[in-house]
Design goal:
The chain is α+β, with helices and mostly antiparallel strands. The chain is 33% helix and 24% strand.
Length: 424
């Protein structure tokens, strides 16, 4: 039986602790906050989208950065394994639109409670208010860690760094893990906020603040080159745009939008072709031939959007419908199919759900999460250069890499299967 020290009590840290303890190791978790899972508590607006109930290949397709690295860990501890672990420990789950998995209670605290119960059952020692200052490394081998308080040295057989990234810094994700990695010679790729809202140039966004558009298609363009296209929900804010489709887009275009403005084109009626939309508008116009233009759009757009669409259409609001020309009507069709805004940047880490960038996976063993530079040192979760789109995929990265790190590669396949059976 070995002694495993885990820095960080978030999703990856708790998964690592459960896996390691399930193999019979003595496990200590060092968490600098007052409780476990502080960031997990606020994910999904407090509901906690724990994973996505799709097949593993689909999980991999939704990873933005370094998906191939995750092949072994995703198959080693799958989304179904996560669901089984939580439900076995008293957290029943449900699957919603887009195969997103949530606790039935809609309370992230139930997810944390289920993991904490399993940890107590396995005898895992949790040390709260225990900030780690540095790692103890001798002759290329990680021997333990040094606590910030009184610089106490704690020795162990393996150390797992699961400190999170830079997002939601109030939860304790302040980049400590990157410092630990750099100190041991690891490369840390550029860090950027990801799954984060965009800032918009036009005042229209602020005018529409609070308006949510469902079932629209968002396309991001760099000149004429298409960078991103996705169907989903979008939200206008006082500074720009947010919502699931926009947050996913940020992971793909973050580097470019920092260099130059990009164009967001929103198809407000993606289910209709331009010809079908023109025919619909024409029918609406024929039924309201003597009404003013401004009073005929309620069946086409949300009320908050109507004044903006009228202004952008160039059609006088008081113009009678029977006076509107074919060219004006077709212009309204084009505007509806391509409502454009200029993206001029991203919000910062305070509003980012995750961090893009991190410890280079080229220096990490994908099966064990062990450093290729320092023996018995492992990294798991957001501290690694791994990220995915919204929908539970980033938490699955945390669960799977944490589990792989907890097992640590010390066991053969039979022991890993036995560990799963014992816990799940």
């Amino acid at each position: 039986m070995g002694r495993v020290l885990i820095i960080g009590g978030g999703a990856a840290g708790m998964a690592a602790a459960i896996a390691a303890a399930g193999c019979g190791h003595q496990v200590h978790v060092y968490e600098k906050n007052e409780k476990l899972g502080k960031k997990l508590f606020i994910t999904g607006k407090g509901r906690c989208n724990v994973t996505n109930d799709c097949d593993v290949e689909e999980l991999l397709r939704n990873v933005v950065t370094n998906s191939r690295f995750l092949y072994s860990s995703f198959y080693g501890f799958t989304n179904r394994d996560v669901m089984e672990l939580l439900e076995k420990n008293g957290c029943p789950l449900k699957t919603e639109r887009g195969s997103r998995v949530f606790p039935v209670s809609d309370k992230s605290s139930d997810v944390i409670g289920a993991l904490a119960r399993q940890m107590r059952e396995l005898g895992i020692r949790v040390h709260l208010f225990a900030e780690v200052k540095e790692l103890l490394v001798e002759d290329g081998v990680c021997r333990g860690l040094v606590l910030a308080k009184d610089r106490e040295k704690v020795y162990g057989d393996r150390v797992i760094v699961a400190t999170g990234g830079m997002s939601y810094q109030a939860t304790g994700s302040t980049g400590d893990g990157y410092d630990f990695a750099r100190a041991q010679g690891h490369k840390v790729t550029p860090l950027r906020p990801a799954l984060v809202p965009f800032c918009v140039k036009e005042p229209a966004a602020k005018e529409l603040q609070g308006l949510s558009l469902r079932n629209v298609e968002a396309v991001i363009l760099d000149g004429e080159r298409e960078l991103f296209r996705e169907f989903g929900e979008l939200l206008f804010t006082h500074f720009g745009v947010s919502g699931p489709v926009i947050l996913s887009a940020s992971s793909f275009v973050a580097g470019i939008v920092r260099e130059r403005p990009l164009t967001l084109s929103i198809d407000l009626k993606p289910a209709l072709s331009e010809e079908q939309l023109d025919a619909r508008i024409l029918r609406d116009f024929q039924e309201s031939a003597n009404r003013q233009f401004k009073n005929t759009l309620s069946r086409l757009y949300p009320s908050r959007l109507i004044p903006v669409m009228i202004e952008r259409s160039g059609i006088p609001p008081d113009k009678k419908i029977h006076e509107i020309t074919r060219a004006e009507r077709q212009g309204l069709v084009s505007l509806t199919k391509a409502f454009r805004l200029t993206l001029v940047g991203l919000r910062d880490f305070k509003e980012a759900i995750i961090t893009q960038g991190g410890v280079s996976v080229k220096e990490i063993n994908p099966s064990t999460m062990e450093s290729k530079l320092v023996r018995h040192l492992h990294f798991a979760g957001e501290v690694l250069d791994l990220d995915a789109v919204t929908g539970g995929f980033n938490l699955q990265i945390a669960w799977s890499t944490g589990w792989a790190a907890g097992l640590g590669g010390e066991q053969g396949r039979e022991t890993i299967v036995t560990t799963k059976e014992r816990i799940l």
